[in-house]
Amino acid sequence: MKLGRFVHHGKTRIGKIVGDRIFDLSAVPGVGSSMRALIADLPALRAALDAATGPSIPLSEVHLAAPIDDSQKYLAIGMNYKAHADEAAAAGIPIPKSQLWFNKQVSCINGPHDPIDSPRVSDKLDYEAEMGVVIGTRCRHVSASDARSVIAGYLVANDVTARDWQARSPTYTLGKSFDTHGPIGPWITTDDEIPDPHALTMWLTVNGEERQRTSTGDMLYNIYEQIAYLSTVMTLEPGDLLATGTPAGVGIASNRFLKPGDRVRVEIDHLGAIDNQVRAEP
Asked: Which residues are within 8 A (CB) of 43 and not within 5 positions of it... i.e. 6 or more apart?
């Protein structure tokens, strides 16, 4: 199932995407306005959501919003693809000896087709294609072998980064958390639709030029190891977002940073695509 949020005639609702149409789920008992709450109740609501058949609207007539806008945590792992770790090391960033996690503040969450602001205070705006994981079950101390059971689904993400501000904080948080720098979407694809989340092709283009391409199977630490590691430290909650790492080809490696007018597209097999244009910060 593909679950998203959409704006139609000025109202934001939760919907189910089937082909090129979105089915309004507002009338389904238990579906409110919060995707986080829906995810928490997904096992109980699943049969009703599967059965919902109407009304529906062509996707071309709606604006897709961020599929979840009320996550409590947005965590991202750094240098989780070897080729990217190598290019980061060449840029002077040491390769970590264990999983390297940082926060993207949830206020950065942005829609799949909404503009990315180029900050007035940064001239090193970069892109990072990533697969996002949405946690579905409140959990702590989850083993890697059980980790898939706590996943609600997957989405496409761009871990937009102001590299100069990233360098100012050893936690990376400032450079990762500017408003609009967390575009996600275009919807949440539930886990049951993806036979193997480590066998998907992911790629990114800037103005149609391919800059990144990889298989999600090339992660140094797979998704289940990531969940096991994080849940050793903290309780993960339904709706929490995990960005699972970016491959080689980021802008800092070639000194080609984003500028206003650039269009950045990230696509992952079976999960869809997000497409955002960079604009000067209003």
From this structure: none
Spacing of C-alpha 76 from chain mean position: 9
What CA–CA distance (Å, rounded) separates 100 from 53?
Answer: 43
In the chain, CATH 3.90.850.10 sits at 74-280
Is the model's pLDDT at 141 over the cut of 80? yes
Rg of the chain on CA atoms, in Å: 18
SS (HEC) of 84-98: HHHHHHHCCCCCCCC
pTM: 0.96
Task: Give 21: exposed, middle or buried? Use CB within 10 Å, 0-12, 13-18, 19+.
Answer: middle
Q: Burial, 166: exposed, middle or buried (Cβ in 10 Å; 0-12, 13-18, 19+)?
A: buried
What is the per-residue DSSP string for 187-235? EEEEGGG-S-TTS-EEEEEETTEEEEEEEGGGBSS-HHHHHHHHHHHS-
Indicate the CATH number for domain 74-280: 3.90.850.10
Host H or E run for residue 115: none
pLDDT digits (tens, 9 = 90+) for 232-266: 999 999 999 999 999 999 999 999 999 999 999 99
Cα 49 to Cα 43: distance, rounded to the nearest angstrom = 10
